[in-house]
Amino acid sequence: MLISEIELYEALSQQMGAEKAKALVHYVESKVDRRLEEKTNIFATKEDLANVKAEIIKWMFIFWIGQLASFIGIAKFIFHQ
Asked: Which of 36, 26, 34 minimizes the C-alpha distance to 5?
């Protein structure tokens, strides 16, 4: 069930007064905003994903070059004796 800030304020103001209801709605709103901000910090952005992709490609090339150098070294050792 979703409730808007205005509906919450109206429901609370009837029971506890306008000032207390306004303060409580403001508190709840700031708490929800803070929680949402905390949760959104853990998501990866497109920039994060692009950086990870670039790092993976870089290390793949380094690995392939190392493998090729090892293969060439082994081939020279075997065929030049």
From this structure: 26
| For residues 50-55, average pLDDT | 92
Angstrom distance (rounded) from CA 58 to CA 52? 10
- pTM beyond 0.85: the answer is no
DSSP 37-77: HHHHTTSPPHHHHHHHHHHHHHHHHHHHHHHHHHHHHHHHH
- Judgement on whether residues 14 and 49 belong to the same structural domain of the protein: no
> Number of folded domains in the chain?
2
Whether residue 39 is found in the same domain as residue 54: no
Residues 1 and 36 grouped into a single domain: yes
How many other CB atoms are there within 10 angstroms of residue 64's CB atom? 10
Q: Give the model's confidence band at 81: pLDDT under 50 very low, under 70 low, under 90 confident, else very high.
A: low
